[in-house]
Amino acid sequence: MRQGPLSHIRVLDLTIARAGPMAVRLLADWGADVIKVEPPPRQDAHGNSVTGGRRGPDEQNLHRNKRSLAIDLKHEEGRALFHRLAKDADVVVENFRSTVKYRLGVDYETLKTINPGIVYASISGFGQDGPDSERPGVDQIVQGMSGLMSITGEPEQGPMRVGIAISDTSAGMFLGQGILLALLHRERTGEGQWVHTSLLEAMMSKLDFQGARYTMSGEEPVQQGNDHPTQVPMGMFEAKDGFVNIAAFGGQMWQRFCDALGATALFEHPDYQSVGSRTRHRHQIKRDMNAVTSKFTVAELVQALNDGGVPCGPINTIKEAFDNPQVKHLGMAVPAPHPEMGDLDLVRSPINLSKFPHGPSLQRAAPDPGADGVDVLAGLGFSDDEIDALRVLRVIE
Fold first, then answer.
1. One domain, residues 181 and 302
2. Residue 373 lies in a domain
């Protein structure tokens, strides 16, 4: 087993979908012993929707470096088994609808009586209480409710969703951070606590400066397409054979851009002599810059502008991004061994720790539901007779 900064931490993972698994993946990637507790696969669907879904790229990327134990939490003995596991766990993570955890008896109030030091972590769509707390929440709904879609896309073309599940992934990242904060607090005090966030809270936070423009001054940001909402000129520009992103805002960067491309007339243009004037003429300067940049290829612009100290990059496809020499150098795609499918290339954690450098592969691919049940329970001290009894009762698979 790979050693990491969290190798002393045991996590019970009750999460489903994407946001919760994102949070747990942070812990699993850095050495925590993550036991994914999930319902036993239905007999009529075995090897079909459940296992098939688990063997797809999405769940493989979400659930790598975990072990799976299938428990029927609706069974009285199943709840008793989970409580027994929770007694010696450090972290429990769930993203059920807010009432489900109470119905199953796996809520924080119940578990902290069993283990006062437990760090209990939850993600919901809209928060643990309040007028919308019972609503089902998925990424695109929250992208719309948070205002994100109103500032994404081209002006006057209607709202546009972001091309990834941004509220799910953001909430997962924030919950992972919250878990680590709670573990640090427990190291000092011995006290556990309930950590929770929601897709809506995560997206309101992710609005960042766009949100602060409204909260501080009442200014309501609008769609700016591929151009930066406040820094001018910064955005996507035409090349002879495609498009590039260029950041030429500010006085020095603007001069470097004009010098690098020999755009003397652009630099001397009376409307572009100050940051404020360039901002006021943002549409005009975009047209004039495109007239210059479109004379060069993407490769020429990237080379010339970066050599001149102006940030510039191509607009890559996903394939081109993973084929990029810098991405390859960083080793962002790494193999994860699967017992039946062989090595699966997945996307590694973006965090780099000098004391725990990334290995040549991930510890393991995502397990089929219940695949590690016997090994997990045996490793936790359960006898063969106890395990067999749980199987007979169909508490575990």
1. no
2. yes
Inside any domain, residue 328: no
Q: What is the pLDDT of residue 49?
A: 37
pTM tops 0.90, yes or no: yes
CB 346 within 8 A of CB 61: yes
Closest alpha carbon to 371 in 37, 57, 81, 85: 37
Helix (H) or strand (E) holding 90: none
In contact, 118 and 92? CB cutoff 8 Å: yes
How high does pLDDT run on average in the chain? Answer: 95
Q: How far is CA 345 from CA 19, 22, 202, 311, 317, in A?
A: 21, 18, 29, 31, 18
Question: Are 270 and 183 within one domain?
Answer: no
Both 48 and 185 in one domain: the answer is yes
The answer to whether 41 touches 70, Cβ cutoff 8 Å, is yes
Boundaries of domain holding 240: 234-315
Cα dihedral value 104, 110, 116, 119, nearest 10: 40
Q: What is the pLDDT of residue 182?
A: 98
Regarding whether 167 and 55 lie in a shared domain, the answer is yes
Task: Find the length of the chain.
Answer: 397
Higher-confidence position of 1 and 299 = 299
Choice among 168, 288, 368, 372 that is catalytic? 168
* pLDDT at residue 339, as a whole number: 95
Same-domain pairing of 67 and 199:
yes
d(CA 314, CA 328): 16
**Same-domain check for residues 286 and 374:** no
Report the pLDDT averaged over residues 330-344. Answer: 97
Active-site annotation holds for 168: yes
Phi, psi (5° rounding) for residue 287? -65, -45
Does 137 lie in the same domain as 17?
yes
**Are residues 149 and 40 part of one domain?**
yes
Residue 310 lies in a domain: yes
Question: How would residue 328 be classed by pLDDT, with cut points 50, 70 and 90?
Answer: very high
Q: Residue 27: phi, psi to the nearest 5?
A: -70, -40
Residue 1: the pLDDT is 53
How far, rounded to the nearest angstrom, does the alpha carbon of residue 231 sit from its chain's CA centroid? 27
Q: Is 299 helix (H, G, I), strand (E, B) or coil?
A: helix
Whether residue 49 is contained in a domain is answered as yes
Which pairs with CB-CB distance under 8 Å and at least 24 residues apart come from 385-393? 390/77, 390/81, 393/75, 393/77
Q: Positive or negative CA dihedral for 151, 154, 158, 163?
A: negative
Q: Based on the structure, what is the number of domains in the chain?
A: 2
